[in-house]
Design goal:
Aspartate Aminotransferase, domain 1, alpha/beta, 14 strands, binds pyridoxal-5'-phosphate, five-stranded mixed beta sheet, Aspartate Aminotransferase, domain 2, 428 residues, seven-stranded mixed beta sheet
Length: 428
């Protein structure tokens, strides 16, 4: 058998073996809080991280571990840690890197909730974010100061379908000696492989395409295992004796697995943002068909976006899969299998027409979610991006005259017909 398995094989097999106790072929839902130690020595070895095993499900659980291993394999990472939501994953990604007074350089083009989390909430930890236009690499570099500990962007940015030039940003991160964190939620590892493009960490809201059916909330942080945490002295939690784990030097003891072990042994232990095994099960089921779904999501998005762009009731469409997009040229290097299925379009008639459009659709569901098999729509300015200023809304690609689509895997012609009838009502 070939050593490097293909994506379609990994999405089914990675992290899963027949259950050693029962032979169960599907990953069982290990609905248990704790695990019996073989004896006192076994317990001590587990707590000392000398042996890998299960102690308590706030830290690790076999169903959740199978999912972590699968996502790590799909992203080409060394290890991964699953957590309770995509937002938890973002905190978990920053946690080992940051101290009070430290900052992260973040793209202006981010999920609205991330702008909130980074702009306000992380200040309570003494962390802060500097938001910069990532098309202006000189500005990104100028924003880096002695307290910067990470650079953060999305591969395909929600809501506008903007594509980040990850290879260029990764080169800059390398130059300034900082880890690059890429939120790969909208692209998934099928469309984009940030680690191969130079990212250090990849974060996911597994709530979206990875689960794919709108059933559970979850998140994941994948570590490339490639960053030298000891080189700069800026990451003492990883490179120096960690008082939170009886003085263990994670990077010294665990090398490329330092981040993953720190995230479990301290991050999950003390922050408790744990994914539950039932949730992991739904996401494992979803991932088995990820590549098939993503191909259809992309094909449908391409068709719907092209139809909208030609429609006189539409001002513009932001889909990067259209040659008219300024980001069309980045597809080849960043997401060669397609530009995803998330984009916005501007309706002639502005805010009021957008609200009417959303209310008139029959197949599209009006929800604050994306990455479902079902097609979804949201008017970001009146919902997810409501708490941002109009300037922030514009920067995030969520202007008042714009609606966001998450194109599902239904028949594209039915989606177009639904948009057609709703546009007629909205612009009457
Ligand atoms: C949904 C989403 C998040 C947050 O994930 P939750 O699972 O809802 O916490 C973060 N980033 C992106 C790009 C998202 O789409």
């Amino acid at each position: 058998m070939s050593k490097t398995l293909g994506f379609d094989t990994l999405q089914i097999h990675a992290g899963s073996k027949p259950d050693p106790a029962t032979g169960a072929r599907q990953v069982p839902i290990y609905q248990t809080t704790a695990y019996v130690f073989r004896d006192a020595d076994h317990a001590a070895a587990l707590f000392n991280l000398q042996e890998v095993g299960y102690i308590y499900s706030r830290l690790t659980n076999p169903t959740v571990s199978a999912l972590a291993e699968r996502v790590a394999a799909l992203e080409g990472g060394a290890g991964a840690v699953c957590c309770s939501s995509g937002h938890a994953a973002q905190i978990m990604a920053l946690f080992p890197l940051m101290q009070p007074g430290c900052n992260v350089i973040a793209s202006t083009r981010l999920y609205g909730g991330t702008v909130q989390q980074f702009g306000n909430t992380i200040r309570k930890f003494g962390w802060s974010a500097k938001f910069v236009d990532f098309d202006d690499l000189a500005a990104v570099e100028a924003a880096v100061d002695e307290n910067t500990r990470a650079i953060f962007c999305e591969s395909i940015a929600n809501p506008g379908g903007y594509i980040t030039d990850i290879p260029a940003v990764a080169k800059l991160a390398d130059k300034v000696g900082l880890p690059l964190i890429v939120d790969n939620t909208s692209a998934t590892p099928y469309l984009c492989r940030p680690i191969e493009l130079g990212a250090t960490l990849v974060v996911h809201s597994t709530t979206k395409y990875l689960t794919g059916n709108g059933t559970v909330t979850g998140g994941c942080v994948v570590d490339s295992g490639k960053f030298d945490w000891s080189a700069s002295g800026k990451f003492p939690s990883l490179s120096e004796p960690e008082p939170a784990y009886h003085g263990l030097n994670f990077h010294g003891a665990l090398g490329g697995m330092a981040f993953t072990f720190h995230s479990i042994a301290i991050g999950l232990r003390d922050l408790g943002m744990t994914m539950n095994p039932q949730g992991a099960h739904y996401t494992l089921m979803g991932i088995e068909t990820l590549s098939l779904r993503m191909d259809r999501h992309v094909a449908n998005a391409q068709k719907v976006a092209a139809w909208l762009e030609k429609d006189p009731r539409v001002d513009y469409v932001t889909y990067a899969g259209l040659p008219s997009s300024p980001y069309y040229g980045r597809i080849k290097s960043v997401c060669p299998k397609g530009a995803g299925a998330l984009f916005t379009f501007a309706v002639k008639g502005g805010y009021d027409a957008c609200v009417k459009l959303v209310d008139s659709l029959e197949l599209f569901s009006h929800v604050a979610n994306l990455g479902d098999t079902r097609s979804l729509i949201i008017h970001s300015a009146s919902t997810t991006h409501r708490q941002l200023s109009e300037e922030q809304q514009k920067a995030a690609g969520a202007s008042p005259n714009v609606v966001r689509l998450s194109i599902g895997i239904e028949d594209a012609d039915d989606l177009i017909a639904d948009l057609d009838q709703a546009l007629a009502k909205a612009t009457a």
